[in-house]
TrEMBL record:
SUPFAM superfamilies: DNA-glycosylase
Taxonomic path: Bacteria, Bacillati, Actinomycetota, Actinomycetes, Kitasatosporales
Top-level taxon of the source organism: Bacteria
Gene3D superfamilies, A to Z: Hypothetical protein, domain 2 (1.10.340.30)
Region called Disordered, residue ranges: 1-46
Name of the featured protein: DNA-3-methyladenine glycosylase 2 family protein
Keywords per UniProt: DNA damage, DNA repair
Amino acid sequence: MAGRFAPRTAREPLPRQAAAGPVRPARPSSTSDGPPLTREWTPPGPLDLRLVLGPLRRGPADPTFRMVAGGTFWRATRTPEGPGTLRVAARGDRIAATAWGPGANWLLDGLPALLGAEDDPDAFVPRHRLLAVTRHRRPGLRLLRTGLVMESLIPSILEQKVTTDEAYRAWRLLVRRFGTPAPGPTTDLGLHVMPDARTWAMIPSWEWHKANVDAKRSSTIMRAVRVARRLEEAATMPLPEAHARLQLIPGIGPWTSAETLQRSNGAADAVTVGDVHLPGIVGHALADNRDADDEEMLTLLTPYEGQRHRATRLILLSGRVPARRAPRMQPGNIVNL
């Protein structure tokens, strides 16, 4: 399942310029037809791009994200300066990035934060051997920060109380239907930038129906996009205030806000509460109790206060996940609901 009952699989101000290289050329306006902008950046430590950028991927056919041969990652998004496409690849101990579109400068300025420059892995002190071993084996794990709320909030709402495949299909169909082709040489990749707030708000009911999105989720998205600017402000807020801002919207609860802020804010303590599988996974890994509930999960994670999201990421990466005892939830059809 996805969303509020989703299995998660191994799942301030805008960024400081940590060890930042210059953006070239110097801040022209880049369009899809104009020259790309480039940047190189040296991470402060080991960096695994797959682990860091993986949470942005909403399924293997996500129209906003691609990984291609050779470990190159493509991301299409809507920035405060307009649509942009970012290509990222490791080149030895440096990261090479290229960006296209009106949002190119913004994306390159935010590259260090996106790749975890503002994250502090050393703040995590493992209290369980499993987590100590996993962290040693995965030194390149850093928590990303996009600085963008809506791009993570909308797909998280789509993931509420449905299967992962249903949510991914809805995101794919809606972005391709109502988004725009991504700037740059992306035609062969099929990359699209998600719709802006006004376009989301104008999607007619039958199009939500075609994407198998029920009225509860589509209504929540409609309420959110009407106050998109206010919600985007959560990207600069401390975690408690950011949670509170998102949860002012009816239909957005602790699960959805945590899933969003993990990505938009790089929130190391945004633990996912309300997931049907995660408590059992944490309980199995830390206490050999696959029947743990949210309360027990939070108790087990108490030693990691301030780093509970990182702890759950490490648990999922450890592979110590209990065997599934119930059949997978079958996709629904809103025609029959």
